[in-house]
Amino acid sequence: MIPTEYIDIENETELDIDTEALYRQADFMFRRLRLHPETEVSIILVDEERMSQLHVEWMDEEGPTDVLSFPMDELRIPAEGEDGHPGILGDIALCPAFAARQAAEHGQTLAEELALLLTHGILHCLGHDHAEPEEHAAMFGLQGKLLEAWWALDE
Fold first, then answer.
1. CA 50 → CA 54, 61, 97, distances in Å?
2. Listing from the earlier edge strand, what are the strands of the sheet with 40-45?
3. Given the DSSP bridges, would you call strands 7-11 and 67-71 parallel, antiparallel or unpaired?
4. pTM given for the model
5. How many CA atoms lie within 13 A of 69 on its CB side?
6. What's the rounded Cα separation, in Å, for the pair 99 and 105?
7. DSSP string computed for 81-142
8. Which residues of 37-63 are buried (b: 16+ CB within 10 A; e: fewer)?
9. Which of 22, 15, 74 minimizes the C-alpha distance to 43?
10. What's the rounded Cα separation, in Å, for the pair 115 and 147?
11. Do residues 41 and 7 make contact, with C-beta atoms less than 8 angstroms apart?
12. Does domain 4-154 bear CATH number 3.40.390.30?
């Protein structure tokens, strides 16, 4: 596992969130994506008020959202056979209250929704986007494969 000093998770909400599961998932994703073991990420769980503030400040959009990603060192997934470089992946803000409503709409648990959002946030920090159809297909295809592998560990 990646040493805990490289994956920082802070729960600023009043919700009881399994941050250890998020840590294990981030560790799994980093290893699966072949990121350098000294890659740093900060994951913060915020309430809807704080997420709304971040959403306006960084995206100029009103209201809360589920996940926001703030890439730092423009790290990318290393090509097959290449080594990744150490650096700061960035910050990922998750809003569990917003995610809980989405989970109910999608027939998922909150843990499943947070796993999806964490994966999505990590991919955004690695330069993936979904604005164009080709980008959408690539990002969501990789996201699906990563989640499938993650959830297979739980079975």
1. 6, 13, 11
2. 7-11, 40-45, 88-94, 67-71
3. unpaired
4. 0.94
5. 20
6. 10
7. TPPP---EEEEEEE-HHHHHHHHHHHT--HHHHHHHHHHHHHHHHTT---SSHHHHHHHHHH
8. eebbbbbbbbbbebbbebbeeeeeeee
9. 22
10. 8
11. yes
12. yes
Cα 116 from chain centroid?
A: 7
Per-residue pLDDT of the chain (155 residues; tens, 9 = 90+): 656 679 999 999 999 999 999 999 999 999 999 999 899 999 999 999 999 999 999 999 999 999 999 999 999 999 998 988 999 999 999 999 999 999 999 999 999 999 999 999 999 999 999 999 999 999 999 999 999 999 998 65
Q: How far apart are CA 67 and CA 150, in angstroms?
A: 19
CB 59 within 8 A of CB 52: no
- Report whether 119 contacts 149 (CB < 8 A): no
SS3 145: helix
Strand segments, DSSP code E, in 12-65 are: 40-45
∠ CA 33-36-41 to the nearest 5 degrees? 85
Which tokens hold the place of 20?
């250890």
